[in-house]
Structure formats: structure tokens, C-alpha cells
Amino acid sequence: MTNSFLNILKFFFTWKNFFLLIVILLLLPEHIINLQPIGIDASWETGLNIAVKNGLTFGRDIIFTYGPLGFLSTHNSPEITYGNLWIFLFDLVLLGLIVYIINRSIKGNYSLVVYGLIYIAVYNLTYAQSTWRLLLIVLYFIIRGIKEYDIFSQVVITLLLVLQFFIKPSAAIYFIVIFIVTSLYLTICGKRWAWLFPVALAMLIFILSFPLKVDLKGYIVSTFDFSRTYSEAMSRMAVRGLKYTLSIFSALNIIFSFMIIALVLIIKNKKAETILISGIAGLYIFFFFKQGYVRLDSSHLLAFWSIALSMLLIYFQFETDLKNRLTRYLFIWIIIVTTASFSFFSKFEEGKYPVPLPVGYLTELFAKSYIQDYYNAGAKSYEMPETVFNKIKQSTVDVIPYDICSVYFNGLNYKPRPVIQSYAASSDLSNRYNSDFFKRKDSPRYIIFGNGSIDGRYPFWDESQTKNTLLSEYAVADSLFAWKEKRDTSFLLEKREQPLQLTKYQISDTLIGINNKIVIKKSDNLLVMSADIKYNTTGRLKNIIYRPSFINIRLFYENGGSGIYRLILPELKHGVIINKKIISPLDSYTLFRFLGKNNENITGFTIIPEKNDYQSQFRIKITEYFYN
Predict the structure, then answer these.
(1) Helix (H), strand (E) at residue 489
(2) C-alpha–C-alpha distance, residues 480 and 495, integer Å
(3) Half-sphere exposure of residue 27, counting CA atoms within 13 Å on the CB side?
């Protein structure tokens, strides 16, 4: 009996199993119930939850970068039935697949160097979103499927990409294309049934679109629209100085080192397989580089650095034995750069223990007041003035620009416009979705309106076409009121019984030059400017590979002052109010109440690019709006 017990201990308690246990502890979800703080991200996460709960159709009623299963990535699911359980199970599945991959990778390999590199890569993954881990698993099984074709790899890829499609479609479509190309290659190489899995993927997406309430056409069209404008609309430069220089230097080191290694292997092996695998790994690096560096701040940088080492280790596992001296040195250099970069950039985010334990599980499972305490704290923070609350509590409500938490914590009847956050509705298509929504008879009776934006933009120009529609369809229902811990000022808009009639007259159509001051004629009416600013060749290339340099506008005010604001080029194409100062909540309140007649005038403007990424001249059209 004793010998049998000892044999069992020897079988299970090996150094390898102990290492896998550490990996499991590293990657276990830190929380079963993850409650986000209030703010912009918490608002759109809450908005998606409410949309799922109320049975709204994604791609028609709700249009955003995340889909009906977005809560699996955000870990925020208070309105989803069994949401926390689904999140936990999803994370456990990903954890199980990562452990499976590591177990296969170290099979028969007892090198401390290999174990150490895997530990570092897994520790980096503790900072990665669940969906980035999902895509990393897909990379492993795609390359494994090319090298060692097996049904299990194809099934895992198919199921994970279906999930990703309903979590965040923009990422899914990119990798679905990679999977289709890979499957075609395998089919040509005589791998039986390889073509069947992309077909199965498409069928599963079609079938699941019904219970998940997804309008596939609108879902895919809007996804391409968001992707097309992402580099222009969402780029940010929060990292500057030495930190910016180091971040760019580190990324370029990784990219060029990988390209040299891949080129050496392609020349040496002369195989289509090597070209395909190197191309797939390169596309992965490019995708995560864009995710981490377009919106450049500490948290987004980790989207790249938390996953970089794992991507490269997967590639090296399948595609190189590192016998070439150059590739061996470059590999060592990559390890040094990725480890040092992650160590440096992760310190700007919330720190994690080397082996974190799920210490909060018992509290979250057995403290019944856990969620209620969070809700009560949010309700207190967002407590609305009683007179305003009593006026709108029985009616449908939307909120502009983005603070959906204010509706949620007051228990209001939220009826959202399709693109639920103003800063995200920059394109002509997304503006039309929202503008058409507010023209409907069943659009929300009230709108809680604030005047704000992100990233130094001119506050009133986000979803400007939609706001021009609101001027006709809605009227001011009260004066400005302070709330949100007495820090924020908003006002109510109420749906008009009869919309105002709008008459438009185009008053100019001309070419103007970058950096030239343009004078605006004085008018009591609103002047709406549309501008078609185009990139030059350098700017177009930057927009594809990384992002173009920022372009700003300086506005000159009637009182002699001026202000500089970040321009979003797609926003300018469908027109912005150019002759009235609309900076503060009071400015926007005055605009809606008097249709611009009492707002301070803007007397002129100058377009100021930070770098020479734009054509020197562009066309503007100015139209005068008359409301009756």
C-alpha cells in the first residue's frame, strides 16, 4: 500500500508537473466577478450588457467594435444571465489549451533555459486580454496544422475563431482570412478535409447569429468601417519623451530581427511552408503592433509586449533549430529586448505577483453584498437631481457623449442610438446610423446631453452629423444641472412634437492651403464646413503601417482668444459647425436653446499638421443652415 502511494506521488509530482502548476496559478483568472470602475470603458461595457439583456440586434440596433459575447473579453457582465460563470469557463478553457501547448512544447525537454523562457512568456501573458490569449492559441494551432496536420488543431482554430467573431469581430475577420489561406494551402498539399473547416466556421457563425441576435451584413459592414478609420480616429500619443523613444526602438528591434531571421530561413529552406509560416507570424506581429502602438499609452503598449515573446517562441519552436550563428544571436537579442521591454512598460500598470493566487474567490462567491455594494457606490456617485430624475424616469433615455453608467446607475429606461459612444462615430456611415435613429418617431424621448470628447478633440464635433440632426429633432427641456458628485454639468433634450424644418444654402466651395488662416464670415445662422483633407504618399503609407501624424486646427474666437484641437479627418468630411464656439456645456446648452444665435462667433481657423503627411491643399465647402 505504501509503495503504491509512493509510486503515485512519483508519477504526479514531477518537476514538469510542478512547473505546469505554477503556470496554472499564473494564468488563473484573478477574479470570478470582475466589476469595472465607472468611466468611459465601464460605460460601453455596461451598454453592451444592457443591449444583450434587452435583446437588441448587433449590426443593426447596436453597432460597436465588440459583439454580443464582448463580455468574455471585458470581464464585465452584471446584466448577462450567468455572465460571470461563462467568463470563468471561457478563461478556464483558454488556460487548459495554454497548459496543453506548454506540456507538448516541453515534452522530453528538461532544459532550464526552455523552462525559464516559457515562464517569462507566461508571466507576460498575465497582462494580456483573454482574447489576445485566444489569438495566441490560434497561432500555435495554425502553425502546428501546417507542420503536423491533425483534425484537433483545425477544430480548435474553428471554434476559437467563431467565439472571437462574436467577441470582437475586427480581430476575428483578420485571422479568419489567415485561416482560410492556410486551409487552401493544406488542401492543395493534399491534406484531407482541410477545406471543410473554414466552411464549418462560416456555417457556425451563420447558425449562432440567430440566438445571439446578430445581423451579419450590418455586423460585418460596420466592422470594416470601424477598422478603416481606426488609425485616424483612435490614435493617441500619451507616451512621450524617453519612454516613447524606447518603445519605438524596442518594437523596431523585434520587427527587424524577426524579418532577418525569417528571410534567412526562407532562403535556406526554400519551402513554401516556411514562407507561409513566416508570413503568418509576421501578420500576427503586425496586428499586435497596431493594437499596441496606434493608441499609444501604457495599457495599450502591453497589448503588444504581453504577447510578443509568446508569438516568437511559437514561431521558433516550429520553424528554426537556430543552427545558423546569425539567427542564434538574433534570437538571443529578441529574448533580451522583449524581456527588458515588458519589464519596463509593465511597471506603469498595476503590478502582479510572480505567482498570483485567486485570493478573492471566496469573498466574491460567498459575500452576497459584493455586487450590491458596487452598485450602491455607483448609484451614489451618479445620483441625479430629483427634479430631473422625476421628469425622465418613466421615459426612454439616451446619453451623449458616452457616459452610459449615468443611465445604468439611475435605473433609467436606456434606449441607445446604434453607435453608443460619440467618439467612435467618426465615419459617415456610423453618423448616418445615429442620425437616422434620432429621426425616427420611436427615438428616445429624452437625451442627457454633455459636451465632451477624448484626446484633445473639439468637443462638439464628435458624431457631428448626428448632432446637426438633434438640433432639428430635439429641444432643451431644462437648464444646466450639476451631478456626478457635483462635478459634471449636463442638460436634457426632449423630442419635439414636430421637428424644425431645415433649409441649407451652400455659400462657398474652394481650395485652401495647409497652414493658411481662413476667415469665416459673421452670421447668426450656423455655418457647416465639410473638408476633404487627403494624405500624401508618406501619410498613406504611415496610415497603413502605423498611423499618420496628428493634424490640428486652431480656431480664432471673437473675443480675441484661440484654441487648438485635434482633427479627425473622417469627421470633417460630413460637416462640422465652424462659426460658433461650442466648447463648454454652457456653449452647447446655448446652441440648442437659441440655435447658435447667442453663441460666441469663431472668426477664422488654420489647419496645422504636425508633420508633412498631408497634401498642401484641400477642398472645403461651407453651407449655411436655416431652421424654421
Answers:
(1) strand 488-495
(2) 17
(3) 31
Grid cell of 284 as nine digits: 500576427
Which residues does 234 contact at the CB level (< 8 Å), separation at least 6?
294, 295
Closest by Cα among 297, 598, 580, 329 to 464: 580
Nearest to 260 by CA among 328, 159, 211: 328
* DSSP string covering 564-615: EEE--HHHHHT-EE-SB---SHHHHHHHHHHTTTTSPBEEEEEEEESSS-B-
- The pLDDT score that the predictor gives to residue 398 is 97
Cell (9 digits) for 250: 524596442
pLDDT in tens, 281-295: 999 999 999 999 998
**Gap between the Cα atoms of 579 and 560, Å rounded:** 14
CB atoms within 10 A of CB 18: 10
Rounded mean pLDDT of 301-330? 86
Give the end-to-end CA distance of the chain in Å, rounded to a whole number.
Answer: 94
Q: Grade residue 238 by pLDDT with cuts at 50, 70 and 90.
A: confident
pLDDT by residue (tens digit) across 162-206?
999 999 999 999 999 999 999 999 999 988 889 999 999 999 999
444, 495 contact by CB (below 8 A): yes
Nine-digit cell at 373?
Answer: 455594494
Average of pLDDT values for 93-100? 95
- Positive or negative torsion for Cα 285, 290, 296, 300: negative
Please name the residue that has the C-alpha cell 488609425.
231
**Mean per-residue pLDDT for 76-100?**
90
Q: Is the dihedral of CA 168, 172, 173, 175 positive or negative?
A: positive
pLDDT confidence of residue 353: 46
* CA separation, residue 527 to residues 112, 451, 459, 461, 578 (Å): 69, 19, 17, 13, 6
- H helices present in 297-404, as ranges: 298-319, 325-346, 361-366, 370-381, 386-392
Phi, psi of 295 (to 5 degrees): -100, 85
Query: pTM, whole model, 2 decimals?
Result: 0.92
